[in-house]
């Protein structure tokens, strides 16, 4: 399988393999892709592409108070008065 | 002691919740260092809770259905104030801020949560080797895997550490480890058990379910954790009768579907255990009926397409900005994402994310995702037709017994094919239970799987219970 293609897939998946690993990944992924592509042999003309319908009981689109706000705030690096500090990204 | 016996003995004053909890921790401390089923125990909190239950009993108050029963939870379920890591570096320090409905229902019925159980990372795997905590070993042969992804749950029950554990099943992750460890594992119909508080993997198929030493205990736990939940919009709102009330019904006349096009190249020893199970059911008056399921063989590739698409979407939130692990000293934002995910996820998770991006890509979407959804319709139709003629469908749970440690992941496609008998249940949204059915190769246990149609857990448990009792006579 084309290494550039695997590299492009990895980029869309926000992954980045080393050049050495890309070779290995391309061999392994090709085998898996070939296996899942066997579905092409199933005749599906006119068959609806339905998933098994989940039971849906959509709740009201309304804000609800979460019962454990202190636990959420404690997950942030720091709290200063009414402000919470988010973790540093860069 | 089984869960049902613990509850009975506590209610009759023959033992205490504290004694049951202390016994569980004694066995965990004795066996877990070799098995590695539990990755954390909550000893102080559990013993304190046991004392509260004993005080409740002493005060003459009514005890819950799981009074004093020690229960282990898979590490992908949230229990407020405790770590929930999915056995991943990505969530290694993630502390839950709320409790999963299934866990809360156990607590509400006076069950005691004793600790977190090992699993394959993000429930992706069939051996519980893909874990930052190391592999769980099969208690029946420690050179072998416990199965997966709920391997910690199955091994803990098998080793007698706890009588009950929660697992989760997306493509067989409760039933296959149950089969490998010689215990009972249940995948309920999607919607019967709330997924609130279960870390999402393949949302259209994920289900929490019980693992127990016997069918009666599995039914007891199912009755406790199942039922409508306003916090899960896919939860089934129908009020069902407890399956435990239906266990003792005779199965004489029950029609048992035997798939005719499912058993090509089946291991002869697995086939033998399956045939024995079929004969046990025949002796109980059940009637085997051959049924065609021509599309069921496509369940595994179908599953790997749809599950990977859902998993890659669900796991996109792990990017270093919001949850969990973040790489150190990134050069730019792209590196925050890529390095965080490369360092935080293990190989199997990366593989599924890559499959997900392949099948969701513009050029492959029609040929994979749409096609898989069409094939899923055909698989479901096969089962709908079958269930017009039969009450349950019988298959082996796994085409093999437990593999040697380190051997399960040698070839990915072969590993994925091991879900041959379990994936159809997820794709067609059936309920399924694996029950031990004797030993196959090298004296290792095999499981027989009872499938019933969606929401017919009553029939499934009834047949499994009747089989188990007759087989163990």
Estimated share of beta-strand residues of chain A: 5-15%
CATH architecture assignment of the domain at 3-246 in chain B: Alpha-Beta Complex
Give the number of DSSP strands of chain B.
13
Biggest sheet of chain A, in brief? 2 strands, antiparallel
Helix % of chain A is 25-40%
Oligomer: heterodimer
Biggest interface between chains: A-B, 44 and 66 residues
What strand order characterises the main sheet of chain A?
1-2
How confident is the prediction overall: mean pLDDT of chain B?
96
**How does the helix and strand content of chain A classify structurally?**
mainly alpha
Structural class of chain B: alpha/beta
Share of residues in helices of chain B: 25-40%
Q: Provide the CATH topology of the domain at 3-246 in chain B.
A: Amidase signature (AS) enzymes
Radius of gyration of chain B: 21 Å
Give the topology string of chain B: H per helix, E per strand: HHEHEHEEEHEHEEHEHEHHHHEHHEEH
Spell the H/E element sequence of chain A.
HHHEE
Name the overall outline of chain B: globular
- Strand element count of chain A: 2
Give the C-level CATH assignment of the domain at 3-246 in chain B.
Alpha Beta
């Amino acid at each position: 399988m084309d290494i550039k293609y695997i590299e492009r897939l990895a980029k869309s998946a926000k992954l980045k393999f080393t050049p050495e690993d890309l070779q290995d990944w391309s061999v392994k992924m090709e085998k898996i892709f070939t296996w899942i592509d066997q579905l092409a042999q199933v005749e599906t003309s006119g068959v609806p592409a339905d998933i098994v319908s989940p039971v849906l009981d959509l709740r009201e689109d309304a804000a609800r108070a979460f019962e454990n706000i202190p636990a959420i705030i404690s997950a942030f690096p720091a709290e200063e008065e009414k402000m919470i500090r988010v973790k540093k990204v860069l | 002691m089984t869960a049902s016996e613990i509850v009975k003995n506590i209610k009759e004053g023959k033992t205490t919740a504290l004694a049951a909890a202390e016994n569980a921790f004694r066995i965990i401390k004795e066996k877990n260092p070799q098995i590695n089923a539990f990755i954390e125990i909550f000893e102080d909190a559990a013993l304190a809770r046991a004392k509260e239950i004993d005080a409740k009993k002493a005060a003459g108050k009514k005890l819950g259905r799981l009074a004093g029963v020690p229960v282990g939870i898979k590490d992908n379920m949230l229990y407020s104030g405790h770590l929930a890591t999915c056995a991943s570096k990505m969530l290694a320090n993630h502390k839950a801020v709320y409790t999963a409905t299934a866990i809360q229902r156990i607590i509400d019925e006076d069950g005691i949560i004793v600790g977190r159980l090992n699993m394959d990372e993000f429930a992706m795997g069939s051996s519980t080797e893909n874990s930052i905590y190391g592999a769980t070993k099969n208690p029946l042969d420690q050179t072998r895997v416990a199965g997966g992804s709920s391997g910690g749950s199955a091994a803990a029950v098998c080793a007698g550490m706890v009588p009950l554990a929660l697992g989760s099943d997306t493509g067989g992750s409760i039933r296959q480890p149950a089969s490998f460890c010689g215990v009972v594992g249940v995948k309920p119909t999607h919607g019967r058990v709330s997924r609130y508080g279960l870390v999402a993997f393949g949302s259209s198929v994920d289900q929490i379910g019980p693992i127990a030493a016997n069918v009666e205990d599995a039914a007891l736990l199912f009755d406790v954790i199942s039922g409508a939940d306003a916090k899960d919009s896919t939860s089934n709102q129908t009020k069902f009768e407890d399956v435990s009330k239906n266990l003792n019904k005779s199965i004489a006349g029950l029609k048992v579907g035997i798939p005719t096009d499912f058993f090509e190249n089946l291991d002869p020893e697995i086939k033998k255990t399956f045939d024995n199970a079929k004969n046990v059911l025949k002796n109980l008056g059940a009637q085997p009926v051959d049924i065609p399921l021509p599309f069921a063989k496509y369940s595994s590739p179908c599953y790997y397409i749809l599950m990977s698409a859902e998993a890659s979407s669900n796991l996109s939130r792990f990017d270093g900005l919001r949850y969990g692990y973040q790489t150190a000293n990134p050069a730019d934002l792209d590196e925050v994402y890529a390095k965080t995910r490369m360092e935080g996820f293990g190989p199997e998770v990366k593989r599924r994310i890559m499959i997900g991006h392949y099948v969701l890509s513009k050029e492959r979407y029609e040929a994979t995702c749409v096609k898989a959804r069409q094939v899923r319709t055909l698989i479901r139709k096969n089962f709908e037709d079958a269930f017009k003629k039969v009450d349950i469908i019988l298959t082996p749970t796994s085409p093999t017994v437990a593999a040697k440690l380190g051997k399960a992941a040698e070839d990915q496609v072969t590993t994925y094919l091991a879900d041959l008998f379990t994936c159809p249940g997820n794709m067609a949204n059936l309920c399924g239970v694996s029950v031990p059915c004797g030993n196959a190769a090298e004296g290792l246990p095999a499981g027989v799987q009872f499938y019933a149609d969606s929401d017919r857990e009553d029939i499934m448990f009834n047949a499994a219970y009747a089989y188990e009792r007759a087989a163990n006579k």
